[in-house]
Amino acid sequence: MNRTYTHNPDHDYGPTRTQQRRDALAVLALANQLVELPQSKLAKLELPEDVVREIANTRRITAHIARKRQLQFLAKVMRRHDTAVFDGVRAALGENRERQRQETAAMHRIEATRDRLLEDTDSALSELIAQHPNVDRQHLRSLVRQAKIEKDGNKPPRAYREIYQLLKELASGGSDDEPVAEEGDIDGVEESED
């Protein structure tokens, strides 16, 4: 009589084939991330020597199929190690990815604000002043005018970049010590200034 999982519930049959495949694909994805990392970031991670060696081998290969095969071999080498060995690596990569996502989102917000300043100067400027009352209004208006001139005259975008840097400084340092207005809550800021 053949025994299946249901016949003896106390026996540990190990992971199912489906789970083994999921685990193998997760290790392959991690291997791919490690190969794509810059060397400076890779050096900061605590990896076994054989894994570091195989990452270097994979990076040298440029042919698509050969690289794919080498990547699978790297994943096989990684599976030989206990999964706990790569817990720190996964955590570091997850933190890096989340931090990069946040930095990218912040950069896009700053760029959107800059573009809005150039398109709808008065409205965007009044909102910015409401959020950051200590901003140098005259300097900002001057930069916006100069950026528009540069854009129309096909000149290097110096003022355009300066606006970005100014907005970046406001976003990082200026918002901590200054009152920040909610959208459409300009009256609240004006009352707090009195």
Question: Please, could you describe this protein's structure?
Answer:
The termini are far apart. Mean pLDDT is 80; it is low at 174-194. Helix 1 (17-36) crosses helix 3 (49-60). The protein has 194 residues and is mainly α. It has 2 domains: 17-81, Diphtheria Toxin Repressor, domain 2 (Orthogonal Bundle); 103-193, Diphtheria Toxin Repressor, domain 2 (Orthogonal Bundle), CATH 1.10.60. The chain has helices at residues 17-36, 39-44, 49-60, 64-79, 87-119, 121-131, 137-152, 158-177, 186-193. It has 9 helices and no strands. The longest helix has 33 residues, at 87-119.
Provide the succession of SSEs: HHHHHHHHH
Radius of gyration: 27 Å
What proportion strand? under 5%
Task: Tell me what the CATH architecture of the largest domain is.
Answer: Orthogonal Bundle
The overall strand count is: 0
The CATH superfamily of the largest domain appears as PSPTO4464-like domains
Q: What ranges have pLDDT less than 50 throughout 5 or more consecutive residues?
A: 174-194
Domain unit count: 2
Distance between the termini: 88 Å
Quickly count the helices: 9
Average pLDDT reading: 80
Strand count, sense and closure of the main sheet? Answer: none
- CATH top level assignment of the largest domain: Mainly Alpha
**Helix proportion:** over 70%
CATH fold naming of the largest domain: Diphtheria Toxin Repressor, domain 2
Structural class: mainly alpha
